[in-house]
Design brief:
The chain is mainly beta and about 170 residues long. About 10% of the residues lie in helices and about 50% in strands. The chain is built from 3 helices and 12 strands, in the order ββαβββαβαββββββ.
């Protein structure tokens, strides 16, 4: 079973047991819908909880679970990751989970390998792939159709339009 990480619990918030979460998902509204079952993980421990409510402020999410009703109950989960089971049905055609893009080889149009995707980063203008070259130097590829020519998740390869000076 594969999971997607939605964020990490960094603190409690308010007297009703709401958790403060550093977000690592770009689909909060769908993931934190009232009634959704999410899994909190830390080390080998896990617990399923049900979303009561959610709101966001930048990259911080405030999530209230039905099972937590005061700060004392919520405090025990600081440091836990919030995860959800990965389900391909959640994606529209041509969209990918960030976790599937990480580790993909980055290829020029002539199939020369120039690096690997290290991280997927969100900037106000667009999503960007942070890649590491064969020489260990970071470079960035905007995740837009002008640069991304083909994504092959099965073979872990992304073919890009290479511009001189990218590396």
């Amino acid at each position: 079973m594969e999971y997607l990480t939605l964020g990490k619990i960094i603190d409690t918030f308010s007297l009703d047991g709401t958790l403060k979460v550093f977000s690592s998902t770009n689909n909060q509204k769908k993931r934190y819908q009232e009634g959704n079952t999410l899994i909190l993980f830390k080390d080998e421990q896990s617990v399923e909880l049900h979303v009561a409510s959610y709101r966001s402020s930048g990259n911080i999410d405030f999530v209230k679970f039905d099972e937590l009703n005061n700060p004392e109950e919520a405090t025990q989960y600081i440091g836990y990751e919030i995860r959800v089971m990965k389900d391909e049905k959640d994606l529209d055609e041509g969209y990918y989970f960030y976790s599937d893009l990480r580790g993909c080889k980055v290829l020029k149009e002539d199939k020369t390998i120039i690096g690997k995707v290290k991280q997927v980063e969100e900037f106000p203008a667009q999503i960007t792939l942070r890649c590491v070259s064969e020489q260990g130097k970071d470079f960035f590829v905007p995740y837009i159709k002008e640069f991304i020519l083909n994504v092959d998740i099965k073979n872990k390869e992304i073919t890009i339009k290479y511009l001189e000076g990218m590396l």
